[in-house]
Structures are given as C-alpha cells and as structure tokens.
Design brief:
Shape: globular
Strand content: 15-25%
Oligomer: single chain
Number of helices: 25
Number of strands: 34
Radius of gyration: 28 Å
Length: 864
C-alpha cells in the first residue's frame, strides 16, 4: 500500500491542482500532453477543448451536445478531420464518427478505404493493400458513466489535429484514426447531469457524497438500459447498428474500447489471460496484443502511472467492442482506468481526480496510434492471414452448412437474416426442400449459410456451440450464441447444401389480409413472432380478440390453413367497427406487424375446435406495470421495457418499488418484477400485491424476484431449489480463492429445456426443446400442481457455455418457468430473465404470452 501511495500520490495531487483552479490553455496542455513541451507545438488556429468549452477539462462533466459541438468545431478549423453523423440514439442524440488523417489522405479517403478493404478478401494478395494507411478505431463512452472516456476523446482528437510535431505528422500520413467519441450518448448525459448537478465547489472527495453515488439506473446503459458493450453481435439497439456499418466499411487494424473500473484499481490493458482466449481465433491475434501492449506501457511509464495486464476480462466472444474486431483480423483491446466517478474521490492510492483519469486515457490513445503506425506491416499481415486462415479452418469443420427458417414464423426468420446481412455474412436462399436433423426446411421460407466463407468465425459464433472453455476465470457470460436464443428453426448439415441466389438485401416486410373482407372472423397464426404486435394494435383500436387454446384448420382464400394453439380470432360480430372500417383496421395492423391475416367466412373448422368453442377464449387488453428503481437490475427490467416498446408497441407504466403500496394496483393486469433486491418493499406493499393477485392480477417475476416472491408467500406453495450443503471444510490455498469462486459462479450460458407447448405460456413455441438462458444461481422446484410447470431444464441438460459440475447438478431437472395460481390470479415465476439481453426471442415470447394470456393460465381456468 505504501508503495502505491509513493508512486501515485504526487501525480494525483498534480491533477488536483489542474482541477482546483482554471489554468491557461497552455498549462492544461502541459498537464495532458507532457510530451509536447513547447507551447508553439500546437496550431493556435485550432481551439483546444478548454478554449472552446470555457472551462478546464476535468473540472466538470462535458455534456454530449458540447462534445458534438467541439468535434464539429475542429472540422471547421482543420482539413485533417471529417465529422459524420451516422445515426441517432433513442433519445434523439446524434451518433458521430470522426475521421482524422492527413489532409491529402482526406482528399482520397474513399480510395484509401477501398484499398484497405482488400485485406479482408482472402482472394486478394497482401500487396493489394499497397501503402494504404493503418486504420485505428478509438471507441469512447460505451458506458456513459465511465467518465474519463469522452473527455479523453476531445483531447486526443485535438492533439492529432493541432499538434505540429514531425512525429504527429507522420502518424497522420500513415494512419486513419476513427473516433467514436460517445457510443452511448443517452447514458453519458444521464451521468453528466447527475455529476454536474451535485458538484460542490470545492469538490468533495467523500465516496458517499451524492456526486459519486448515481441513482437507478445510473449512466452505464442506454435508454432501454442496454449494456451496449455487449451488443456488437446481437445488434438489438439502434445505437449499435450505425457504428457497425462504419466498421465494415473500414475493418480497422486496431480497435481500443475505453472503460473504467473501481476507484481502488489502477489501469488495465491487454493481453488477457490465455484461459479467456477463443480457440477460433489464431494465436497470432492474441500475441499481437503483447506487441501493442509495449506502446501502452511506454505511454503510462512516461507518466509514472500504475497499470497491470493479463489478469482478467474475457476475450473469446465477439460481443464486445474489444472482441468483435478480434473476429475480423484486428487487434482489439479493452483498457480500464480506475474511476473517480466525479471530480475527485478518495481511493486506496490517495485522491483520485478526474483530470488524472483523463490523462491516462489520452496517453493510451496516443500510444495506440504510435504503436499502430510502427507495427503497420505486421498488422496488415495479421489481417490478411486471419481471413485466409478462416477458409482453412472452415474446411476442417464437420458442419458444412447451416440452414434456418420457419414458414410459420417469417418474423424471426427475417430478423435472423437481417442480422447475418448486417455482419456481412454470406447467405443464400434455399431453393429446394431439405431435412436436416429431423427438421424440414422449405424453399421460400428458409436460408442457407455456407460455413466455407471468410466470415466463418462469426458464423460459428452465431450458430454453433461455444468452443470448449476451461472455466478458470470469467468476466461475463460464457455463451452468446444467437441462433439458439432466437428460437427460430435451424440446423447444421454435415453435407454441403447448395443454396440458390445469394441474398444481397433484406426482402420487404410482407403483411396483408388474405381474402378481403371477412364474413365471420379474421385469424392470425400465433407462431409468427409478430402476432403479438398485431394483437396490441388491434386492442389499441378497441377491437376485441380471442385466442384458440387448441389448434384448428379453416378454409381460406389460400386453401386449407392450419392454425396453432394461441392463434388469434377477431370476430366480425360485436366489434365497434364493421365492414370496410374493420377490414381497414385489421389491414393496418397486419401491415405494421408484417403478419399474414386470413379472412374466414365460417366459424366451422374443417379440423380441430370450432371458433365458437369454449376453447376460444376472450382476451383482456393488458395494462402492464414495470417495477424499476433502486435495487432493481436495470438491464433486466430494461429488456422487458424494450420488448413492450419496440416489439409490441404496447405502452407500460414504470413504477418505483416504493410505489407498490401507495398506488391503486387494480388498474394493472400485469406487474413485472425483474431480478434485483426487493428487501426495501415493506409489509404494506407486499400485502397490497397479495390482494391484487388474489383479485385476478398476474405478477411476473424472474431470478431473485422469484426467490423473493416465494419467500414472501406471494407464490404460496412453491419452493426454491436447495443449495448443496457445504462439505466439511477442506484446506485450500489462499491464492486460489478467486479462481475457485469464478469456477463455481453461474456465468451466463444456454441450457436445453423441455417445454409444455400446450400451455398458454408456451403458445407459439414450435418445439418441445427450448434453449433457455441461465445467468444466476436461483433454482425453482417443479410445481406440486402437475399442470403448472411450463418449462423444465432437462435432467441431463445440454450446456452451451461453461457450467461447473456442481452447478450443472443443481439446475438439472429444475423448473425454469412455472405458474403459481393464487385466488383469481397467479404468480408467473421465471428462474431467469426471459428477455435476456433483448435477443432471447425463444423465451421472451413466453413473457409476451404471460402479458396477453396471464388471466387464462391457471389450470382450472384453462380447462374452462
């Protein structure tokens, strides 16, 4: 400890001086750029961030609009920088990419980009890249409350544009530096407003001071509480997609993702531990982390800043901003700075100031450019070899083609196709019917993905099981496989399937009413993932709808059509709209949702139940409350919010946990409690919830909320799985405790489970086998009621990811989803978040069912 204080405290105190009083621009430059000792080293015509903003960097948190304005100001004064708005966040803030390079490079930037792109084409020789500049991507503020990042972006861009040294001019001539200055502007401004609102003068270093303690949901995540650093593969958010398009225009050679960690740490950069490397990635890629690390070390050594490498943060899945480039032949690096979370905070290393954290990030960014320019030739060789080796590695795989698609679920089929195209993956339309692993795929509704392609490693990540992992230490989830989580039909073929036409663009959405004006009813197959959106639209217009709890077949204008359990029936009789007006409303809902609606002339079915059966049940219009506030896991409740907003277009009320005992709950049909800590909910609120459920409400819980509901007797009669009793203490090495704890942690993975497809909560699920996410240690015992366990993890579950043998034994055979009837209502208990990370569509449709069918899932009610 004393060594840390001796090494770091003088630097921290120097930063405190910068923080405490406004200094001339040259004084701030001397602090942030100690290598530029001559004040004349900077072009006086280029305003520094301090000059433009009117305050010293590090003395307050720069809002996103100010950050955008500064980058635009640089572009006004210099021909070395070009700023593009590539999109908008959910809250309407601009997303930027700034391109910095020499002026003559800017003049031929498109030719440079095309020349550089030859590196990712295995058919092109390495020489095709010629003398094109090395491409560096610097990504900032993906977590909005990691405060040093965006400030460092401004300073780093200023240095490259304004510094006159020969070294900087060489960098600009031999590199193209892409700045993503604020990947998460909504979260950044949430944090900025908090820190600025609670700032004191002089600044308080007390860790308990409000400036350092953000309230729910904090600024880490975006508008829908998504961790954007884990969205590079799934691309669920509109914040993520524009930058990915730019990535695939440039294919950077080096990509740095700037982060922060706890205040008592120092600074981290890669390489990461070998146990966290993917066997899909060539060893040379990870070895180049060590090469680049030399330049990061030199930069921080020059400042006397402490750092460490090789101890944590995983590197085996292409979901992060520092790993997605690894899967494209680049050197991706996570850097982490101890965070002041405000202007100054006490730490074990002394006073940790905002300027100090910013300076380290600036040094690392400039060191990255220096390293990339110096190692340009090796980086080009690495990227060229990467894509050529992908073809060789693909040729050795037992699976030769992946095929996916479901004629009954065009919405999810189309969504997976869209994802593949966004990742520049080669996809072909299936031109003949094939059967793979017992599943039939038909031409016109299915697609083929050849394994033998340059993007093989990304194809594997999306469709195949996670490669074998040792399980030493994990930072995040161990499986992010997309196709199993989507729930759409897919299979891997050991023989090559030659598809038809290569798909160049996404086909238009097909939504229509078939058969014109109905004489009796309109019907929508619930197997289509977008059927819920159509139902919400119809109910919003005051139309009544029913759901068939058993399958039926009807004659339509397109012939005999089979409708699965859960399919919607919109009767013509008794509606507030009639004739052409009703048809117009149904047609609008069909077009918006992209679903096929069939006009039926009779209530008599050719097979299955008739439409007047007791098995065709009236649906109530849902009124949903999402509980979000202190103690609630923001990313989980954010996924439910996103599902209702963006998928269903169904508005939801957002309640603080403390409101549960104070507001009238009877206006809601469904209340959702995601994972979190609910100890702050008092007895009055618990009693109110019990009364509401007994009166017919449907309480949906998952993870720790399900555990809490059982403990509070809200789900009376249900029980939790038992943890293994600790065996008699055995002696273990003190130094192994971190690794042992990591091995026994449930690091998110995908498990095979059995689903009762006849249960209303599982309507639309096409198969009895379902892939479920397991992210926590909560296990539920199957219900004593034989009809109420909807999803149960297999007795010998197939595991995609890492799960210790002890945890595998704990979850095997446990319930993942069950219903606990309570009076006229029920509690729907999930063991984990069904809408995990917003791409688990196979299970988020169970949540959709709970919202629409929640009052019809009690066993006695279901029997009618």
């Amino acid at each position: 400890m004393s060594f840390h204080r001796r090494a770091v405290l003088p630097l921290l105190l120097a930063a405190a001086t910068v923080l405490s009083s406004p200094l001339p621009a040259q004084a701030q430059s001397a602090y942030f750029f100690p290598q530029a000792t001559d004040a004349a080293a900077f072009d006086a015509a280029i305003p520094s961030p301090e000059q433009f903003l009117g305050y010293p960097i590090g003395s307050r948190y720069t809002r996103h609009d100010q950050l955008v304005a500064y980058f635009q100001e640089l572009a006004k004064h210099s021909d070395k920088i070009r700023v593009q708005e590539i999109g908008r966040s959910y809250e309407g803030r601009p997303l930027l990419i700034a391109t910095v390079t020499a002026a003559d490079n800017q003049a031929r930037i498109d030719r440079i980009r095309q020349q550089h792109a030859t590196l990712v084409d295995p058919a092109q020789p390495r020489s095709a890249a010629g003398d094109s500049p090395v491409v560096v991507w610097l990504g900032y503020s993906v977590h909005g409350n990691e405060t040093s990042s965006g400030e460092a972006a401004m300073l780093t861009a200023y240095y490259l544009v304004a510094n006159r040294s020969a070294e900087t001019q060489q960098w600009l001539q031999q590199s193209v530096v892409l700045f993503d200055p604020a990947q998460n502007p909504d979260g950044r401004d949430r944090a900025a407003n908090w820190h600025n609102a609670w700032a004191s003068d002089p600044a308080s270093s007390d860790p308990a001071d409000k400036e350092h303690v953000e309230p729910f949901p904090q600024g880490r995540t975006n508008h829908y509480f998504t961790d954007l650093n884990r969205d590079w593969l799934a691309l669920t958010q509109q914040d993520s997609r524009p930058k990915l398009a730019v990535f695939h225009q440039w294919y950077p050679n080096v990509q740095i993702d700037f982060h922060e960690m706890g205040k008592d740490s120092t600074y981290y950069f890669e390489p990461s531990p070998k146990s966290m490397h993917s066997p899909l990635i060539p060893a040379a890629s990870y070895e180049f982390n060590k090469t680049l690390a030399k330049y990061h070390a030199q930069s921080l050594d020059a400042l006397g800043s402490l750092y460490y490498t090789g101890e944590n943060y995983d590197n085996f899945s292409p979901v992060y901003g520092s790993t997605y480039p690894d899967f494209h032949g680049a050197v991706g690096v996570t850097v982490e700075q101890a965070s002041s979370r405000g202007r100054v905070q006490e730490s074990v290393n002394g006073l940790l100031t905002f300027p100090f954290t910013i300076r380290n990030q600036v040094a690392t960014g400039l060191g990255t450019v220096r390293g990339a320019v110096t190692e340009r030739s090796g980086l080009f060789d690495l990227q060229k070899d990467f894509f050529q080796s992908a073809l060789k590695q693909a040729a050795q795989q037992p699976v030769k083609s992946f095929v996916f698609g479901d004629a009954h679920d065009p919405a999810l089929t189309r969504r997976l196709l869209e994802l593949l195209l966004l990742h520049r993956i080669d996809v072909h339309a299936l031109d003949r019917s094939v059967t793979v692993d017992g599943q039939r795929f038909d031409a016109g509704s299915a697609y083929v993905v050849p394994v033998q392609q340059a993007q093989f490693r990304l194809v594997h990540s999306i469709f195949a099981e996670t490669p074998s992992i040792k399980g030493d230490v994990f930072y995040g989830s161990t499986s992010y496989a997309i196709a199993p989580a989507y729930g759409v039909a897919f299979a891997g073929s050991r023989s090559r399937i030659d598809g038809g036409t290569r798909v160049a663009e996404l086909p238009p959405v097909q939504g229509a009413v078939n058969g014109g004006q109905a004489g009796f009813a309109y019907a929508i197959d619930w197997r289509d993932y977008n059927a819920g959106r159509a139902l919400a639209a119809l109910q919003a217009k005051g139309l009544s709808a029913r759901a068939a709890f058993k399958p039926f077949s009807s004659a339509t204008a397109q012939g005999q059509v089979d409708f699965a359990a859960g399919s919607l029936v919109i009767p013509v009789a008794g509606q507030p709209l009639q004739g052409a007006a009703l048809l117009e409303a149904v047609t609008a809902a069909a077009r918006d949702a992209g679903v096929q609606v069939h006009a039926l002339s009779s209530g008599r079915s050719s097979e299955g139940i008739d439409l007047g059966s007791d098995g065709v049940k009236a649906l109530r219009k849902p009124a949903v409350a999402l509980v979000m506030g202190e103690g609630v896991t923001a990313t989980e409740i954010g996924s439910a919010w996103f599902l209702l907003d963006q998928q269903l277009h169904l508005p939801a009320s957002k309640l603080d946990p403390q409101q549960l005992g104070k507001v009238a709950l009877d206006r809601y049909t469904t209340i959702v409690l995601s994972g979190g800590t609910y100890t702050g909910i008092d007895a009055t609120a618990v009693a109110a919830l019990k009364r509401w459920v007994q009166a017919g409400g449907s309480l949906v819980t998952y993870g720790n909320a399900s555990k809490w509901a059982v403990e509070q007797k809200l789900a009376d009669g249900e029980s939790l799985g038992k943890d293994e009793e600790a065996s008699e203490a055995e002696r273990r090495a003190f130094g192994d405790q971190r690794d042992i704890a990591a091995i026994e942690r449930v690091s998110g993975n995908i498990l095979s489970a059995d689903v009762d497809t006849t249960h209303p909560l599982a309507f639309g699920v096409p198969r009895r086998q379902l892939a479920v996410n397991k992210e926590n240690a909560v296990t539920l015992q199957p219900s004593a009621n034989p009809f109420s366990t909807v999803v149960r993890i297999d007795a010998t579950p197939r595991v995609n990811g890492y799960l210790s043998e002890r945890n595998r034994a704990r979850v095997a055979g446990s319930a993942w989803l069950l219903v606990s009837p309570q009076g006229q209502g029920n509690v729907v208990l999930f063991a984990d978040d069904p809408a995990h990370r917003k791409y688990c569509h196979g299970t988020d449709r169970l949540l959709i069912n709970a919202i629409f069918f929640g009052n019809l899932v009690n066993p006695a009610k279901a029997r009618g």
